[in-house]
Design a protein that fits this description.
single chain; mainly alpha; Arc Repressor Mutant, subunit A; Tetracycline Repressor, domain 2; 2 domains; 13 helices; globular
C-alpha cells in the first residue's frame, strides 16, 4: 500500500502576500523611527504618512501602538537569539563558548543600539511586554545562555562553590518562566547564569546610555577585564579563560586563577 503523500502547503494568496509585505514595511519604518528618534519616538500616524496610508488604514494591521511594539520585540529577541546561537558554535571549549555568548551579546547591542533599547529599555511610557506573546522569543535567548552555562558546568569548567551569588538566592517570576522554558537547566545553576548576564547587561547599558566612554579611554579593553571578572564570579577558572592569550605568562595565569577561585587570596 502506497503511503499517503504529505499535502503540498498552500501558497499564500496575493492578498496575503500584500498584507505580509505591508506589515514588513510598517516594521522597517518603525525601526527607522526608533533608530533616529530613540525610545518614545514611534508614531503609527507618522509611519502611515511615510507609507502613503491613511491613519485609519494602518490600524487594520496593528490595532494599537503596543501591538506594533510587541511584534518588534518578538522579532528583535529572535534576531538576538539567532546571533547568540551562532556564537555558541564557534568554539569547542566550554569556557570560551560561554565567553563568546556574553561578548557576542555586547557586539550585537553595539551594532543595534535601538533594538537593544527596545527589549531592555522602555519603548514608550507604560508599555509592558505581554508575557504570552514575547516569552517564547525571549526564552530562546535565555535558553542559549542557560544551556551554555549548564554545559560548562557538566564539563567541569564551573566550580559551583566559587559562584559569587548567595546560596539561597532564588529567581523572580520572569526568570522562573524563562528557566522553565529552557527546561534543561537545574534551578541551582540559574542564579549563576542570571548574575553573569545581568553584570554584562549593566556594562552594556553604561556603555550605550551612560558616561562609560568618558570614564575609560578604551571600552573594549575595559569590557575584556570586566568579562573576565564576571566569569570568575560565575565559577570559571581564569586560566581557562586566558588559554589563548599568548602574551600572558604562566606565573600570571596561576596568580589570576588563584584570585578567581580563592577570593581572599593575595597575589603572589
Amino acid at each position: 500500500m502506497t503511503p499517503p503523500q504529505a499535502a503540498t502547503p498552500k501558497r499564500p494568496t496575493r492578498q496575503q502576500q500584500r498584507r505580509e509585505a505591508t506589515i514588513a514595511e510598517i516594521k522597517d519604518r518603525s525601526r527607522e523611527q526608533l533608530a533616529t528618534g530613540g525610545a518614545g519616538a514611534l508614531s503609527l500616524r507618522a509611519v502611515a504618512r511615510d507609507m502613503g496610508l491613511s491613519s485609519a488604514a494602518i490600524y487594520r494591521y496593528f490595532p494599537a501602538q503596543a501591538d506594533l511594539i510587541t511584534a518588534l520585540c518578538v522579532d528583535t529577541y529572535n534576531d538576538l537569539a539567532d546571533t547568540i546561537e551562532r556564537a555558541r558554535t564557534h568554539d569547542s571549549d566550554s569556557a570560551h563558548r560561554m565567553r563568546n555568548v556574553l561578548s557576542t551579546f555586547r557586539t550585537w547591542a553595539l551594532a543595534h543600539p535601538s533594538d537593544f533599547a527596545l527589549i531592555f529599555g522602555t519603548p514608550f511610557p507604560g508599555y509592558i511586554a505581554p508575557p504570552g506573546e514575547t516569552t517564547e522569543a525571549a526564552a530562546r535567548f535565555a535558553t542559549a545562555l542557560f544551556v551554555t552555562y549548564a554545559e560548562a558546568a557538566d564539563a567541569g569548567a564551573v566550580e559551583l562553590s566559587a559562584v559569587q551569588v548567595p546560596a539561597d538566592q532564588g529567581v523572580g517570576e520572569l526568570a522562573d518562566i524563562l528557566v522553565n522554558q529552557a527546561a534543561i537547566v537545574p534551578p541551582a545553576l540559574a542564579a549563576g547564569a542570571i548574575s553573569g548576564w545581568v553584570s554584562t547587561l549593566g556594562f552594556i547599558s553604561a556603555e550605550l546610555w551612560g558616561n562609560l566612554g568618558r570614564i575609560v579611554d578604551n571600552t573594549d579593553t575595559a569590557f575584556d577585564a570586566h568579562l573576565r571578572g564576571v566569569m570568575c564570579s560565575m565559577g570559571f577558572n581564569a586560566s581557562d579563560l586566558s588559554a589563548n592569550n599568548k602574551e600572558q605568562s604562566d606565573a600570571s595565569e596561576v596568580r589570576n586563577a588563584r584570585s578567581c577561585r580563592e577570593p581572599g587570596a593575595t597575589p603572589g
